[in-house]
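User: Run a structure prediction on this.
Assistant: Running it now.
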Amino acid sequence: MKISLIICAYNEENYIQGCLENAIKNGSGKFHEIIVVDNNSTDRTKEIVGKIPGVTLVAESQKGPNHARQKGFEVATGDILAFIDADTRMPEGWIDTLIHEFQNDPKIVCLSGPYIYYDLSKWQRFLCFAYWHILAYPTYLLVRYMAIWGNFAIKKEILKKMNGIDTSIGFYGDDTNIARRSSLLGKSKFKLNFVMYSSGRRLKGQGILYTTFLYVLNFLTQVFIKKSVTKSHKDIR
């Protein structure tokens, strides 16, 4: 099993080095390759990535996270494509859980799990914990699919059968879209203890309640009408 780690980055000079250092350390040499897709950064992102040995830097000129993910899919050579965000911090044992899940259940086509936000207050982290356990996970058990792009892995052969990533989706609902479409070809698994540490900058930048509303709204529209209704998003850096 060859695992390609794909990280998409747009103006991530404040986060990308920490993201890669954690991925290299806690990947324990088990990644087939680590790819950073630069999505037209105008800061020092490319410079920082270029100084880290063993990391492949590629460019995607079409702005948007899903265009960058599609580029990662096209250039990756692994059997499993693992996607994380540039502001994440991979925990110890993450790669071992991924390998275990795919090796021990051949029906699994994609795997995801929740975030733990490393830069929110204790009270804010508690609210997010309650969201994942009280609202999100029971919903997953009902619809049988759920994904978070910053903590996601999928078989490349499945993504090929799906004709890749839907680049018409700007931002909200894109993770539900990939989980829904992949669930038609196998088991889409959302595992509560398959966690990724992430920045809560979007929650802080536009508010926890409003951000949660946008994610829930577009999750529901992807489930019921198979499209996202929120067409724009704000880059928060």
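Strands lie at 3-9, 33-38, 55-59, 80-85, 88-89, 108-112, 115-117, 151-155, 187-190, 196-198.
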